[in-house]
Amino acid sequence: MSTILQGGPHAGPRAASNPVLSIKDLRVSYTTGLGTVNAVDGVSLDIGAGEIFGLAGESGCGKSTIANAVMRLLQAPAKITAGSIDLNQCNVLTLSDEELRRTRWRDMSMVFQSAMNAMNPVMTIGEQIMDVFTTHEKMPKKEARERAAHLLSLVDIKADRLKSYPHQLSGGMRQRVVIAIALALNPSLLIMDEPTTALDVVVQRDIMAQIKELQQSLGFSVLFITHDISLMVELSHRMAVMYAGRLVEVAPSNVLLDDPLHPYTTALMNAFPPLSGPRTELLGLPDAPPTSAGRPSGCSFHPRCPLAMDACRIQDPVLRPAAENHDAACLLVPEFVVPPERLAQ
Amino acid sequence: MSIPSRFETVHGTRAQSLVQVRNLSKDYHSGSFPFRTTVPAVKNVSFDIGQGEIIALVGESGSGKSTIARILARLEQPTSGSLILDGEDIFATQKRKASMAYRGKVQMVFQDPFGSLNPAHRIEHFLVRPLLLHQGPAGTNELRAKVRELIAAVGLDEAMLERYPHQLSGGQRQRVAIARALAAEPEVILADEPTSMLDVSVRIGILNLMRRLRDERGVSMLYITHDLASARYIADKTMVMCAGELVEGGESLELMANPHHPYTRLLLSAVPDARGANRAPGTAGPGGHYTSPAGPSQRVQLTDSHWALDYPSAR
């Protein structure tokens, strides 16, 4: 395995040999009176042990649907029509209710977007954390309280806050508590669905630093979902860009930052005003209305793509290697062929 | 491609101030005797908004920036201080007519386009209503022409008029909210975090629209945000607010190139900047909080337009 990157152990190869999470050709559809929408349309990805994997895309592209599918939280009208989800080599989709109950939180846990709504307003922080221990570990109350205090200290909150109610904490603190609850049973996978979207930049920066620190000390894997690609580049080892239910580009974060291949990734990268240099006009992306059943012919990005050619309207590009450790789904990107001398090795 | 020269001319000719905010303070009270506490949300804030100027007011949650917007929109009464629009002290008169006239001149765009448009009405309704309220009765044809003009001004298709809010994306909804504000033909638009609920990819479109409306119609804007990068992108001047106080102000480019106040630097360091030269991927910068040092502060003038608070005792 060669790494073209200087980064950590996970910055290189596309898939770790023993992935914590392995999604193969996942398809999820929502059936409504107006027709069927393929919210997730054949997504495959692997997340290695101790890897922070970023999933970026706009609202409605299907990224939260993937998260909910992994947690088995999807409800009608959503339906998983094909594919498999393996967590530690165990198929999540075929688990019985009892097995699922044991897997959730112990093996995988989730941090939701709005911390205020994720917590019970009439229970103290302490009760909500202890709930995890008493339910899953059958732990006596006294010990659970000690563990809860320890968990809070992990996220830099004083133990006397155990008696506080959610509304007595600031938005940033609430999100920290939710992260602490998610880490209570030391899961191997933590799913974070836009954990900082409701927070301001200063708090966001703190929380990101905290996640990074906890991940390094505890070693869990992260599936991190956001629409803010600049944030993700700073946090994740490897990331995927999602558009209209499909992955359009997958690469290590710094490769994606320096050398984005898909026009959509480039557009997302260029959507941020810089903090230095001359003030130049940015174009962003044309606004896209929420997608109903209709999917454009050919490449689904072509109506908004600045580089669209005639062929894009007809031919549907597939995700294929575009360079070493770098996949892209665009007709403009030539397929990468492994040099023959490498094959011989 | 550089942005039209308007940026320079605004400062070159020293735009005439349209809105003058003087010594504005707002205290919030909570609890009742004997546990009554007073929280000062805005402390002695003064600034001007010039004709056709975009001013950014930047600060984190709880810094008091939205309180200022709400006072300027007359949704709140200040504890003390004055607000002068076109030479008239607004809080001196309490007459309904005067307040109506004020609302015709100052309009607000709210943060949440999902909450600010009534889901039971079609888009057309949101534009017809302010037209009737602020422009007086008009013939159907005239009204229709004005609605069409408004929807085109914010870059939306006429077909949108027939739709309901849920059929629009967040960016499109925020455009409708801006069109609604424009319907009153205001002199000032107060935009309270108009892009923070939107996808990053469509934020630029809204910012470009705001700047275009300023250029074409000469409407002044107060842009409230916690994102310094976007303030730098559209605002002529930026003011930084910390715990109810303005701590630094100046022309946006100058202020962000040479930030003086520690809080401004903290805000700058918190902006995710993928292209930042010295920030490698995978390294989130240091977090931190800032509290103003105790003791007196003084205002230092750094350049003609750039000033900041300094704390001599903390040195």
TrEMBL record, chain A:
InterPro entries: AAA+_ATPase, ABC_transporter-like_ATP-bd, ABC_transporter-like_CS, Oligopep_ABC_C, P-loop_NTPase. One of its GO terms (molecular function) is ATP binding. Residues 23-269 form the ABC transporter domain. The keyword Nucleotide-binding applies. Keywords: ATP-binding, Nucleotide-binding, Transport. NCBIfam families: oligo_HPY (TIGR01727). This is ABC transporter ATP-binding protein. It comes from Arthrobacter silviterrae. The lineage of its organism: Bacteria, Bacillati, Actinomycetota, Actinomycetes, Micrococcales.
TrEMBL record, chain B:
Residues 19-268 form the ABC transporter domain. SUPFAM superfamilies: P-loop containing nucleoside triphosphate hydrolases. GO terms for molecular function: ATP binding. Keywords: ATP-binding, Nucleotide-binding, Transport. Transmembrane segments: none annotated. Residues 275-298 are annotated as: Disordered. This is ABC transporter ATP-binding protein.
